[in-house]
Structure formats: structure tokens, C-alpha cells
Write a structure and sequence with these properties.
Blueprint: E1 4-8, H1 16-29, E2 33-36, H2 41-44, H3 54-65, E3 69-73, H4 81-86, H5 113-130, E4 136-140, H6 156-170, H7 173-180, H8 208-236, E5 242-244, E6 246-247, H9 258-262, E7 269-272, H10 285-297, E8 304-310, H11 325-337, E9 340-346, H12 370-389, E10 398-402, H13 404-412, H14 430-444, E11 449-453, E12 464-467, E13 472-473, H15 475-486, E14 490-493, E15 500-501, H16 516-519, E16 521-538, E17 541-554, E18 558-563, E19 574-581, E20 584-589, E21 591-593, H17 595-608, E22 620-626, E23 632-638, E24 644-646, E25 649-651, E26 656-660
Parallel strand pairs: 1-2, 1-9, 2-3, 3-4, 4-5, 6-7, 7-8, 8-9, 10-11, 10-12, 12-14, 13-15, 14-20
Antiparallel strand pairs: 16-17, 16-18, 17-21, 18-19, 19-20, 22-23, 23-26, 24-25
Helix pairs in contact: 5-8, 6-8, 8-13, 10-14, 11-12, 14-17
The chain binds zinc ion.
Zinc ion (ZN) binds at residues 92, 109, 111, 153, 155, 157-158.
């Protein structure tokens, strides 16, 4: 298997002679695929029902002359002005009260019938026209569904559908009142159509049960829209044409369930931007290791597509640090090392005009550029290395679990200011960063790990599993974990585990509730640390706890660390414990350990679980892959701006090497 090299291309911005010279340059660089059309609805349907594919027919044929095949995005993320004029109510209303306006993207509500019916008709016409075209190899549904705040809408269309959804879920209003606990603050409802939508408030908050269900409803709405497009395409196109959609970071910054969005699609797709907008430095590589592992875990296939791979500085309003072309190429290697088999660079050309004027491309308005030469060199010189392992299974003995409902609950009821991270007004990233805290040790110690949904995961392949921020506990998940630990599995539980049931109702036994026997502890007291820290001792190692501090009473567990902070009422009490359960072990960690704490704690945990932690130095990743014959190889990435020696080999600054064993 070879890497599929492609790039995002917008022929609506260039003339045919330019496209011809671009195709020639792509070919010289080894780029054989273009992704087209994902914002071009108004180009292909300038008036309602009048489809005009002339531009894209010409462009697809022109690229084909140069051996370049096309991937088409269904252009439902931006809609034509005639559709807006037909029904201005199709525009989303954000829970903050900000009204969207025509001309932006992802602004239409996927519960607005005028919009969805027009989108489905457009996708039908598109699939009918290109479904048998041998120069079209695949499809991308929409663009970044749920991104930029479009995961939550509180318009009148949503309100109607919300009431319907509640009726189907609860059947009787009394059940809803009981599950949400509406008796408090006197919000008992007598009809489903009385129930409000959660919006930003001056003070206080809506009923948490209502918020959780609204976010589930929003996700279902987005998923239904994507799945309808998928079935239209699958029913019309040649079987060889694949279908995916482009997801985006962070995985849990939105309420939309990305796994559900992807259901039935051929593989996962992702947009990989390690630095964006006004950032002065990239987000650390271990965060991206977590994100790429999450994307790999969304599909049964070991490989996925990067539909937008960072090439150069990007932003919409503002720009930040410039990274070297070597570092940008390393991020391509990073994606492939974690399972990507298709790389579409974003984007081929910097646009002179339009909303993505600050999204710099491989080429500027002049022809060749340093970026072009660097990408070309990377493709030509690294392809043999990539080919050794691309598409092979990704072996992992450790796994980090996530749960979408827990993320949805923590989004608004964030417990501690340490989890209140809001890089953009529409985005909350605290849940992701807390999970990364427990994923980073795998990366640092060269342990391959998966990221999977707690509900869906098959635990059999793993020796070590980590479950964090699992407040809302599903008893089936608890039973699955208990059976696996009994057989020898090692489980790490984080603070606040198991304090509620899966409908967000507090349990009536001591925390960690259903996990108490498994963990061998009870939470005696707790404190939200917000942005402060508490001193901790792991054996002789001084460390710190952040975000939250639980003092543990041991029932059957043994202590591993305690608080060592005289200012705290829980000074000297246990904060980390380990319990033997059947043939396995359960670790309970009552605080968010800082870097040094994680380093020493996980070294012990990984060794106990029979894994072989090896620290190769800061900024070094060693990822185990299989070559095409099934032999173990190591993909070594150096994220440092200087050369390093790893496993006896020199690895240049921002470079990748592949070694046997
Ligand atoms: Zn809506």
C-alpha cells in the first residue's frame, strides 16, 4: 500500500490555464489527487433546481489528463443566497444568542426543512452526475460538521424537533420530570412543548438533565443530516467510490458524536492543524498523538485520511508563529505514523480574495515556492519509509477510554476552573486536556495506545486501560471493566469516577459508587482546586495535584501517594491507591497529577501491567508499527529543533526515521 497524496483545490478561484500549470506541478511533486467542491453549492446550483456542472466537468477532466483523480466534497456547509431568501429562518441561532448571518459557513440549521431538503436534492444531483465518473474516486460529506459552534442551535426548527425527540425518549412527561428532577426550582412540566432550550444565562443555569439531553438531541440532528447524505451517495455511486467526512480537533470540544457521524462510512477523515490562528507555538505533539489515536479508533479500519494537512501558516482573522517547512513535514509523518494512509495538503494555493485569504497555501500568487519544494522533497524522499508500514494494523496494548455524555455534562458543569478552557467562544477543551494528561505518559514512554469509547470498546487486546472523568457511570461498562480486570487487566481510574448514573442522577452510595469494590476505596472528602495546586508525595517523589483533590479511605486498596500539604484539612491522607482485584489491579487517582507526578506514577503502572516503558527523551516519539510482512519496526519522530540520538541512530531536527525492531 502507498500513501495517497492529494491537496485541497478550489477551481472556482482560478482559470483553466492556471489549473493546467498547477496540475503539472502537482504531478512533478507526486500529488495525484485533488479534493474539490466542498464550498461550491452556489456554483453548481446557481438557481433552485438548475444544476450546472460545466466548471467541475472541465476541471475533473483537465486534472485527469495529468493522471490526477478527484475527491468531491458535498457543498452543504455553505449555501446559496437564493436558499436563504427563500427561507431566512434556516439560519442557526447559537445558545449565546449571537445571530448568524448569510455569508459565513456552517450557519444553516440541520433541522430546518428548507435547508435539508435542498441539500439532499443537491447531493442527489451531484451523485447522479459523478457517481459513475471513473475520475472521481471518493466523497467527503459536508465540511467539518458541528465545528465553529454549529454543534448547538436553539432556533424554532430545533425547538419543534426537540419536543418530538423528548416525546419519543420519555413517552410520558412524568418520566421526564422524574429523570431530570424538575421539582426543584419548580420546573415541573405538564407537556413536552413547554420545555425550553438551554441558552446562555445571565446567572445560574438550566436543569443539568435538560442540558445533557439537549446536547444528545443536537448530536442526533447532525448525525441524521450526515447519514442521509451518506445513504443518498451510497445508493447512487459506483462501489469503488469511497465516502468519509472531515472531522476536526479537538474531538470532545463539541457535543456532536463523531463516531456516530462516521457510522457506515468507509474510513475516518480528519483535518490536522497542529497550529492555527494567533498561536505563538504549536500545541504539543502528545496532544496530537491523542487526537490522531482517537481518529484511528473511530473506525474498524487501521488507516484513515487526513483531508486537510497543515502546510503553512493558517488563520481566519489573525496569524501567529511561522513554523519551519521541516516541522510541517514532520506533522505529515506524525499523521502517517499514527495510521493515516491518505494525505490531502491544505491548500494548494493561497487565495488572493475571499474568506480564507489568511489560509496560506503550498503556492502563493507567484508559482513555485519554498513550501512546494519542501513538500515535493518530503514525498519523494520519505515515501519508501512510509510504504514500509502504511495501512498495516496498529498494535496497541494500552487504551484510553472516553465517554461523550460525560464530556457533554462537563462542558457546562465544569466542576473546577482548571477544566474551564475556552480557546474560542464556541469551544470547550477541558475534557480533552484532562484526557491528554493520562494519554501523554503512553507517548512519553513509547507505549502504543488506542483511544476508544468506553461503551463500544472491546477490552480483550489491552493490558492497561485508563478511564478519566467518568462521572456518569454506565453499569454495563462497569461490569465489562470488572470482568476484564478479574482476568488480569490493569485499570487506572481518575477522580470523580462513578458519582452519578448514566442519566446524571447522583448515586446514593459513597463515591466511586459502582466502582467502589473494584477500586477498594471510598472518597471521604473532596475539594475543587480551581487554578491552585496541592502538594503530593508519591513515595519519596514530591509532586503536585491540580484541578481537584479527593481524600481516599482505603477499604481493600493499598496507598501509593498522599497529600503533603499542611494547609489542607486532608494533609497526609491518601490520594492515589492500588487495589488487587482477581488477577488484575485497579489504580484510583484522586487528583490530576502534574507532569512529574504522572511521569513517576505511570512508570510504575506501565511496568506493573507488563508493558515496557522507555523514556527516549523530551520531544522524542517511538511508535511501534508492523511492516508489510508483519515484522515489528519503530517509527522514530524527533519533535526537537536539534538532532538527537535515539536507539543508537541519529535523528535530525524535526525528522522521522524508521528502524527494524
Ligand atoms: Zn436549529
Amino acid at each position: 500500500m502507498e500513501v495517497m497524496w492529494g491537496t485541497a483545490y478550489y477551481p472556482e478561484q482560478w482559470d483553466l490555464p492556471t489549473i493546467e500549470s498547477d496540475a503539472r506541478l502537482m504531478n512533478e511533486a507526486g500529488i495525484r489527487y485533488v479534493r474539490l467542491m466542498e464550498f461550491a453549492w452556489a456554483c453548481i446550483e446557481p438557481e433552485e433546481g438548475c444544476f450546472d456542472f460545466a466548471l467541475f466537468d472541465k476541471v475533473i477532466a483537465k486534472f485527469a489528463e495529468f493522471g490526477i483523480k478527484s475527491v468531491l466534497g458535498t457543498p452543504s456547509a455553505t449555501y446559496p443566497i437564493w436558499l436563504y431568501e427563500k427561507d431566512p429562518s434556516l439560519i442557526q441561532i447559537h445558545p449565546t444568542g449571537i445571530n448568524r448571518i448569510f455569508g459565513t459557513r456552517r450557519g444553516a440549521c440541520c433541522n430546518a426543512g428548507t435547508y435539508t431538503q435542498a441539500a439532499y436534492k443537491m447531493v442527489e444531483a451531484l451523485a447522479d452526475h459523478y457517481g459513475k465518473n471513473s475520475n472521481v474516486v471518493g466523497w467527503q460529506i459536508d465540511n467539518e460538521l458541528g465545528h465553529e459552534g454549529s454543534d448547538r442551535c436553539v432556533c424554532e426548527h430545533c425547538k419543534r424537533e426537540w419536543h418530538q425527540w423528548l416525546q419519543e425518549k420519555f413517552k410520558k412527561i412524568e418520566t421526564l420530570n422524574a429523570v431530570w428532577g424538575t421539582t426543584f426550582w419548580g420546573t415541573q412540566y405538564s407537556r413536552f412543548d413547554q420545555i425550553p432550550q438551554p441558552k446562555s444565562e445571565v446567572a445560574s443555569m438550566q436543569n443539568p438533565g435538560l442540558i445533557l439531553d439537549y446536547y444528545r438531541f443536537c448530536s442526533v440532528s447532525a448525525v441524521r443530516f450526515a447519514q442521509r447524505q451518506l445513504s443518498i451517495i451510497k445508493n447512487r455511486v459506483a462501489p469503488a467510490q469511497w465516502v468519509t467526512t472531515n472531522l476536526y480537533p479537538p474531538p470532545h470540544g463539541v457535543v456532536t458524536d463523531m463516531a456516530e457521524l462516521l457510522r457506515g462510512m468507509d474510513f475516518a477523515g480528519f483535518d490536522y492543524y497542529p497550529i492555527w490562528g494567533n498561536m505563538n507555538e504549536p500545541i504539543p505533539y502528545f496532544f496530537w498523538a491523542y487526537v490522531l489515536s482517537y481518529i484511528r479508533g473511530l473506525s474498524a479500519k487501521p488507516d484513515f485520511a487526513i483531508l486537510e494537512q497543515f502546510t503553512r501558516i493558517q488563520g481566519h482573522w489573525c496569524l501567529g508563529a511561522t513554523v519551519s517547512s521541516k516541522q510541517a513535514n514532520l506533522w505529515t509523518s506524525h499523521a502517517i505514523a499514527y495510521g493515516a494512509s491518505k494525505i490531502f495538503y491544505f491548500r494548494w494555493r493561497t487565495a488572493a480574495l475571499g474568506q480564507e485569504q489568511l489560509c496560506y497555501g503550498i503556492l502563493d500568487n507567484d508559482k513555485k515556492s519554498a513550501c512546494y519544494e519542501s513538500i515535493k522533497e518530503n514525498i519523494l524522499t520519505k515515501s519508501a519509509d512510509y510504504q514500509r508500514f502504511v495501512g498495516t494494523p496498529f498494535p496497541a496494548e494500552a487504551c484510553l477510554l472516553y465517554d461523550k455524555d460525560n464530556m457533554r455534562m462537563l462542558r457546562d458543569q465544569y466542576l473546577t476552573e482548571g477544566l474551564l478552557m475556552e480557546p474560542a467562544p464556541f469551544l470547550r477543551t477541558g475534557y480533552d486536556y484532562e484526557l491528554v494528561r493520562s494519554f501523554a505518559p503512553f507517548v512519553i514512554y513509547g507505549i502504543n495506545a488506542d483511544v476508544k469509547s468506553a461503551r463500544e470498546v472491546d477490552l480483550a487486546p489491552y493490558k492497561l486501560v485508563s478511564l478519566q472523568l467518568y462521572q456518569l457511570a454506565d453499569k454495563d461498562v462497569v461490569q465489562k471493566l470488572a470482568a476484564w480486570v478479574k482476568q488480569g487487566g490493569h485499570l487506572v481510574l481518575g477522580w470523580r469516577t462513578g458519582v452519578r448514573d448514566s442519566e446524571n442522577r447522583a448515586i446514593d452510595t459513597a463515591a466511586p459508587g459502582l466502582f467502589s469494590e473494584l477500586a477498594g476505596v471510598e472518597v471521604e472528602s473532596f475539594e475543587s482546586l480551581n487554578k491552585t495546586k496541592v502538594k503530593v508525595k508519591l513515595g519519596l517523589i514530591p509532586a503536585k495535584g491540580e484541578n481537584w483533590a479527593e481524600a481516599l479511605r482505603l477499604t481493600t486498596a493499598r496507598p501509593l501517594a498522599h497529600y503533603n500539604d499542611k494547609k489542607k484539612p486532608y494533609h497526609k491522607q491518601v490520594c492515589v491507591a492500588v487495589n488487587s482485584y482477581g488477577k488484575g489491579k485497579v489504580y484510583y487517582v484522586g487528583t490530576s497529577l502534574n507532569e512529574i507526578g504522572l511521569f513517576f506514577f505511570y512508570r510504575k503502572v506501565l511496568k506493573d501491567a507488563g508493558l515496557k516503558p522507555k523514556f527516549y527523551g523530551k520531544g522524542i516519539e517511538v511508535i511501534k508499527r508492523q511492516d508489510q510482512d508483519g515484522k515489528e519496526i519503530s517509527v522514530i519522530l524527533n519533535h526537537n529543533p536539534r538532532a538527537k540520538r535515539v536507539k543508537g541512530r541519529r535523528v535530525d531536527a524535526f525528522d522521522m526515521i524508521v528502524t527494524d525492531g
